[in-house]
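Worked example 4.2. Below are the chains of a multi-component assembly; read each line carefully before continuing.
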Amino acid sequence: MRLSESKIKTKKRIEIEEESKGLAYLLRANFIEKLTSGVYNYLPFGLRVIRKIEKIVREEMERIGGQEILMAALHPKSLWEQTNRWEAFDALFKVQSRYGQWYGLGPTHEEVVTPLAKNFIFSYRDLPLYLYQIQTKFRDEPRPKGGLMRTKEFLMKDLYSFHTDEKDLDWYYEKVKKAYLKVYKRCGLKPIITEASGGTFSKFSHEFQVLTEKGEDTIFLCANCGFSRNKEIMEGKKCPVCGKKIESYSAAEVGNIFKLKDKYSRSLDLKYIDQNGEEKYVLMGCYGIGISRLLSVISEVLSDSKGLVFPEEIAPYHYIILPLYTGRRDTDKKITKFSEEIYQLLKDHQKEVVFDDRKNVSIGEKFNDVDLMGIFYRLVISEKTLSKKRIEVKKRNSPNLKYLSKNELINLKK
RNA sequence: CGGGACGUGGUGUAGCGGCAACAUGCAUGCUUUGGGAGCAUGAGAUCACCGGUUCAAAUCCGGUCGUCCCGACCA
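Applying the procedure described above to all two chains together yields the following structure tokens:
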């Protein structure tokens, strides 16, 4: 991609109101743009990162047997009445058609996935079943917060599992936990698994919490045994496991998993016939990862004083080529020619590469943009590198410069 | 939904009864190029909206809408 063709320029100034540097960088780099309170647009670079996070999530979901589907966002009122959540789920957006029918805008999909599963689940032979989707969710939040942290419209991955018995549900629940940890690890995060309340979903749940001052949760963590529980359900100052003192931390939730058991299979009547011919309720689990919130937390935690410092797997691009001109026409022509050559070379090798071919933009400004946007490798083509027939390479997360040949560049490993 | 703050060129702000200003961004030209360059010229705002007070309102008063922050609520 040629940056001169992008037309979407970074902003020099940080919005004064933004207290979170991660959010300020996302806005300055034009990864996202606010449409109205709690509602955001995703611009080309931000969307690339979102798509990469989604790719990681999809790979890890497929690895534990998840099959991707895409459910409707517009839900009939009747289904939500069956589970009593038309009234009980406060944040449900309710819309009425001009002919009078009421719909809910999907904030979660138990009401849709359970009836859907009835088409396929009749016998114990039809279980287990794992279905997931990545979709825009709607929640009528009274107070959106922290940019993408809490919004009225957000991207979420939701996985639903269906089982014959608790043993199987428990086993899969642990499997999902591990898969989630892999997702976060690939995104450069190390969340803490925390016991939490289940809200309208179930009695208890587990949350994946990333320690950050910008988080809106407070969690208790035992330094001795690692036990962790959300403040909302914790009493006392001692660890219930080992009895040692616990400390409190502010944290941001990036995932939440629930054992729904028969809660929704009862209200929506999802049964199967077991080996003995007996009719039983299917047991369910649901597992969510807020994709857009994940981008927000990653930006907050993985950034420095200049901008975003993403892992290679989720960086918006892997390479950016910066020609460094001298002001002398002949030399500059050669610099342009060599830059174009390197750009073509990387493209030919299917590398994700940006060519910063903007004219009349100083090298300082270009350096700042690379740092702001978190592009993984910065390649400078200058008079100096030209004479050596090498390319200057700098990683975003390191101050060191390396001078590589074309071959070495193509075969760069982390 | 309670409490607080704030709405002024694209963006960020100053002005707080008397000619609407600054920075940045934008346009044109020249000079620049190892960390957000310099000079010159130029375009761009019915000061959120509605009403009131006044000789005179961006400025004071009332209302509406919107945004942000703190609570309550929540992925």
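Take a moment to check your reading of the output against the notes. The radius of gyration of chain A is 25 Å. The mean pLDDT of chain A is 93.
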